[in-house]
Amino acid sequence: MSKLPKENQFLDLSDYGRPVAKAIANSLKNTSLTPIHVTVGFIISGLLAIICILNHQYWATAFFLILKSILDAADGELARVKNTPSYTGRYLDSVSDIILNLLILITIWHITNGSLLYTLLAFFGLQLQGTLYNYYYVILRNKFDGDTTSRVFENETPIAMSGEKQRNVNILFGIYSVLYGAFDRIIYRLDRRAVESENLPNWFMTVVSTFGLGFQLLIIGLMLVLGFEQYIIPFFIAYSVFIFVFIGLRRFINR
Question: For position 1, what pLDDT does the model report?
Fold first, then answer.
């Protein structure tokens, strides 16, 4: 099941694992496994990718990064096919993502003997890229009656859905706010009028989807396999320039 109505669906370059994710979700539909179990699976896959980086096993790294992206999509798909959406799963997913992102970049810094400052700048840029993509995507999903588990403005603790505990939602939302709050505020201040957008064309969303986490992990995996590990940190710093390019393009489209 898509997060958007058919007419508003776009080619999401970061979501290449969706077909396999749907197959996994359908195979688990009538089992006792929950979306949380699948989220734990992608956490394990991300950690295995980090171990492979440390051991310079880059083909295996690429495999586990791609598997992580597939499972990252599968947990949401399973929640939809089982009709068990939850804020617990939504925030656990996001918190796990940002921690794994930092660990992956720190690991790349370790094996390349690069600059820790540049690594942190790359992490900052990578997170801003993903935040911009998610910002536009959630606006689109809310505007066209798609999946609304994610909110445009994550500034209040949501009420727990059926089947989950409010205490778990409170804890995970608090962690989410600490880890993502600054990135959300920066992107909102850079393009606060995006929520009023009358038009976010499919082609535009496809271009911006290069900021999606799945695509970012694919780039990291490919660069490692090709022997370009020294350039991963500089790449994500430089690619952050396109944040301003995409915001300018969005404003032009809705002028």
Answer: 42
Q: pTM above 0.85?
A: yes
Distance, in Å, from the CA atom of 112 to the CA atom of 75, rounded to the nearest integer, reads 33
CA atoms within 13 A on the CB side of 245: 11
The string of pLDDT tens digits covering residues 73-84 is: 999 999 989 999
Tokens at 105, concatenated:
């970049």
| Residue range of the domain that includes 41 | 6-253
Number of domains into which the chain is organized: 1
What percent of the chain has a predicted confidence (pLDDT) above 90?
A: 84
Q: Under 8 Å CB-to-CB from 219, ≥6 apart: which residues? A: 232, 235
Whether residue 184 lies inside any domain: the answer is: yes
* Main-chain phi, psi angles of 228, to 5 degrees: -105, 30
If you ran DSSP here, which 8-state letter would residue 150 be given?
S
Q: Are the beta carbons of 1 and 74 closer than 8 angstroms?
A: no
Single-letter code of the amino acid located at 196 = E
The token duo for 32 is 């006792």
Mean pLDDT, rounded, for 135-162: 79
Supply the DSSP symbol for 114: -
